[in-house]
Every structure is written in C-alpha cells, then in structure tokens.
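hey can u run this one w/ adenosine-5'-triphosphate bound, need the structure tokens asap thx
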Amino acid sequence: MIEFRNISKEFKTEAQTNLALDRVSLKVNQREIYGIIGHSGAGKSTLIRVANLLEKPTAGEVFFNGEALTKLTAEELRKKRQDMGMIFQGFHLLKTATVYENIALPLKLVGLNALEIKKRVHQYLSVVGLLEKEQAYPSQLSGGQKQRVAIARALSHRPKVLLCDEATSALDPETTEAILELLNQINRDFGITILLITHEMSVIQRICDRVAVMEAGKVVEEGSLLQVISSPKHPTTQKFINSQFPSGAENLIENSLHEGHLIVELSFVGNVADKPVLAEVAKKFDVYPNILSGNMVPLKKDHYGKLLVELQGNQMETKKCLRYLKEKGIRTEILKGVGSHEAVS
Ligand SMILES: Nc1ncnc2c1ncn2[C@@H]1O[C@H](COP(=O)(O)OP(=O)(O)OP(=O)(O)O)[C@@H](O)[C@H]1O
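ok here u go:
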C-alpha cells in the first residue's frame, strides 16, 4: 500500500549536510498497523513526512497503491493526500475554533456541502466518543480528548491510511492506552492502514503487526512483531525490547548461582500459565527449575514473557531439558553457568 524505495533525504545547511534518511526501503501492507521505532534523530519524522510528500526525498521513490507520488502533479498529489490522514504529537487543532469547526473547516475546504459536513462531523465524533464536546474549544479539552478530535478530523476525510507522528507521546500512560485501543478499533472496523512512528516500545508492542527499527537514517531491523520481539538481531532492537523488562538480573545472577547450576533466560510468546512447561520439566528430567524473576508484556494479540530461571541438575539432564524447552518454542539463553556447565549451549 505504501512503499518506500531507496529513500534518501539530505538536509543541507551552510555549515553541513545532514543525511536524515539513508536508502530506506520499506513496504506497508494494506490493513496492517506498521510501527517505526527509533531514538531521537533516527529519521522517523522525516520518513513519515515522506509518505505523503510533506518532505520530498533527495533520492528514491515513494509509492501509494502502486503509484509513484513524486511523479504526480501538484493537483493530483493534493487529491491523493486526502487518502492519507495524519495525526501529530501536538494535535494541531485550531485554538480559536470549536471541536465542530475544527473538523468541519477542512471538509468545507475540499468542497463538501453543509449537510454532508454535519453528517460526517457527527459520525466521526461519535466514533471517537466525543459527540457531547462538539461546541467545546480545544483549551477546554484534555490531551486525550484533543487527540480524539484530531483523529475524528483525519477520519472525516475517509482516508485509506492514517499516519501517526508520535501520536501518544504527549499523553499519560492511561490515556495512551485508550488512544492506542481507539487506533486498533479504527484499523479493525474501517480497515484503515496505520503507519506510526514512536520512540516507545510499549506502543509498538501494544498495536503493531509489523515493525521497523531505525538508527542514524537507516532501517536496521524489520519484520513481524513476533519475529522481531522473539529474536531481535540488532543491538538497538535488543535494547528497546529489554527496556520493557526490569533490570537487576545481574544481582540476581550473582547472588543465586551455585556450583553446577545454570542461569537461563527463557523468552516465550503466549501465556506460560496455560502451558506449565517448568512443572513438566521438573517431572520429565532430573532437573529442578527455580524461578528467579519473570515478567510479561501484552502484545497486540498475545503476551511476550521472560523468565529468569536457575536450573539445578547434572549436565546431561540440563542439556535434555534445554532441548525440550526449545522444542516447546521457548527461546533459551544461558546467561551464566559454572563448573561443568560452561560448555552447555
Ligand atoms: N529541516 C531540517 N533541517 C536540517 N536537519 C534536519 C531537518 N529535519 C530533520 N533534520 C535532521 O535529520 C535527522 C533526523 O531527524 P528526524 O526528526 O527525522 O528524527 P526523529 O527520529 O524523528 O527524531 P525525533 O524523535 O527527535 O523527532 C536529525 O539529525 C535532524 O537533526
């Protein structure tokens, strides 16, 4: 649906040239929620602005439904942009206009009649749950409510894609959760494709189907959420994922390691409570698993969890146990072993 093909973007100032995007290629499929994550300066904002050519790439091409956007005339591009709604961290509402007017004015600009405008304003205020606020001014709304108005405004043009530029970064965790759920619902109910950028892994985990990780203008890792989260390859991806889990494992490891034992990190998708694998392990093998710490984070359709476990047993039995866990789809990483277990992997 959206394809970035070899996109580069240079910003030239008198003093220097900034390469904000360095040969970025990505495909966003219809109806998916695609998240781009990266630290400040990675190039996320520049890339999302290239999607609707608010930013023109220095090199490369961006396609929307197979059409090369840079080849369009100004008029064709203006029309095409109506298929791409956008929401921002700072909401971008007109302060001196009511909620109703904030949504109605852009519809008037594209030539809709008063009756149709009224119908759409009410329809989409109802979708975002703010019908009763239509005569309020933005200053009378909370951050979450302002973002809902911005979402209603974007939806009122009946776009095929919603571009979300750090849409929840200015909101508290509870409001963030509500806005993410609303985006999920919009994706599900209207089939609208969503491309979002964020610096928060929790946002990616909560709603995205696929994810790209950016650093210094490049995409360093890309794939389905489950793929990326369960076997992150790039150190930046690993750091983003680890940020979701409490630290302090080093202390636990130091304090609990006994001669001949292994400390293993188990990562899994799904609820381990449904699959009592550690109890099975204890039964099947002559190994005693001792849980040191554990944490679960919710994903769009599932949970992702990590357990830090001390395995007590001889080398042969521990090896069999690790093989068994792998067969069950659990990723195992030996963090520390002593004595004869140093060689087990
Ligand atoms: N208009 C501009 N002029 C010059 N340099 C720019 C301009 N816009 C962005 N840059 C530079 O391009 C690089 C990428 O910036 P960009 O805003 O896309 O990153 P980002 O990942 O969105 O960061 P943030 O989360 O802080 O917004 C940065 O080095 C930035 O300084």
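The chain has twelve helices and 14 strands. anyway lmk if its weird
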